[in-house]
Design a protein that fits this description.
- Helix 2 packs parallel to helix 3.
- It is built from 5 helices and 5 strands; from the N terminus they run E-H-E-H-E-H-E-H-E-H.
- The chain has 138 residues and is α/β, with parallel strands linked by helices.
- Strands 2-1-3-4-5 form a 5-stranded parallel sheet, with helices on both faces.
- It starts with 5 loop residues before the first strand and ends in a 10-residue tail after the last helix.
Length: 138
């Protein structure tokens, strides 16, 4: 049996978090969702679970602008931790920021898989979570 796919939503906007969760359900994307309201919560979770790979997220949807620790501060800390992380975690920076500096900073960060602008629609979610053919052979 393979490990359950885990997605961490790191964003202080509760409507966005709710929307992502509902859209993954509507698309029948099989994920367990972890919710964090800022980068420090997510970072603390990762630190606490470094030895438990099965608890770590496979995918992180990371907002840029958050209280306590924003997305770029998270990435600075994450970069130092990455050698200790034993799974192939993908990080998608998700933001409503149209600031070219933010976009360029995210796109040139090798730890960030992609920068995606809000709002997240079904097409963008399918880009993050490619839907496989679920043809059942049973």
């Amino acid at each position: 049996m393979s490990k359950e796919n885990i997605v961490a939503i790191v964003d202080d906007d509760h409507i966005y978090r709710f929307t992502i969760k509902k859209n993954t359900e509507a698309l029948k994307i099989p994920v367990k969702t972890l919710i964090f309201t800022h980068g420090k919560e997510a970072l603390d979770f990762i630190l606490e679970n470094l030895e438990s790979v099965e608890k770590l997220p496979d995918t992180i949807l990371l907002d840029v602008n958050m209280p306590v620790m924003d997305g770029f501060e998270f990435m600075e800390k994450f970069k130092k931790l990455k050698p200790e992380i034993k799974n192939g975690m993908k990080i998608f920076m998700i933001s409503s920021s149209i600031n070219p500096t933010d976009i360029n900073k995210a796109k040139t960060n090798l730890e960030i898989t992609d920068y995606i602008s809000k709002p997240i629609n079904m097409v963008k979610l399918q880009r993050i979570f490619p839907i496989k053919d679920n043809t059942d052979a049973s």
